[in-house]
Amino acid sequence: MRALTAQSLLRAALPASLLWLAACAPAPIYKSTGTIAAAPFNVAETPERYANADVVWGGRIVSVRTLADRSEIEVLAYPLDGSQRPKAGDSGIGRFVAVMPGFVEPLNYPDGGLITVQGRLTGSRAGKVGEANYVFPLVGVGQSHVWSASEMNSGKNNVHFGVGLGVGIR
């Protein structure tokens, strides 16, 4: 019988460890049905190109407006991870307005909270961010999910690979 070398052990362990790491991440919350991956600023530049497109977008809640027949949530968009959680550590990729039918309780959509919405682009609207003019894509929301801190941290592994010396202070 042939002796196992370090190289053969590494070859055997690598696929298993990759499968283990992939199993740690939660599944996406919304099924992808031909959704577009265009960022809100791309849509704002050429809204006619994306008319009635389905999207799954997410980000940080900036504000909530409740109107007579709908509620509007302004969101600073971030890229989403494989579980459709906003990557809040990344740079924002534009803003959009999530339009929800009827009344939503603003306390259930707190300023600064992280949200993912699934819906359809229904147009765009000119507005302002501070004193700057801005075009907001409008998303008619079919489903939404506000992420709790524990959901944002679940599935994140604490395994790091590297060479060197590390010191951690807590």
Give the topology.
Layout: H1 6-24, H2 40-45, E1 54-66, E2 70-78, E3 95-101, E4 114-129, E5 132-147, H3 149-153
Parallel strand pairs: 3-5
Antiparallel strand pairs: 1-2, 1-4, 2-3, 4-5
Protein name: Slp family lipoprotein
InterPro entries: OMP_Slp (IPR004658)
Keywords: Lipoprotein, Signal
Describe the structure.
This protein is of the alpha+beta class and 170 residues long. The chain has a domain at 40-152: Beta Barrel (OB fold (Dihydrolipoamide Acetyltransferase, E2P)). Helices cover 18% and strands 36% of the residues. It contains three helices and five strands. The chain has a five-stranded mixed barrel. A hairpin with a 3-residue loop joins strand 1 (54-66) and strand 2. It is globular. The N and C termini lie far apart (48 Å). The model is unreliable at 16-24 and 157-161 (pLDDT under 50).
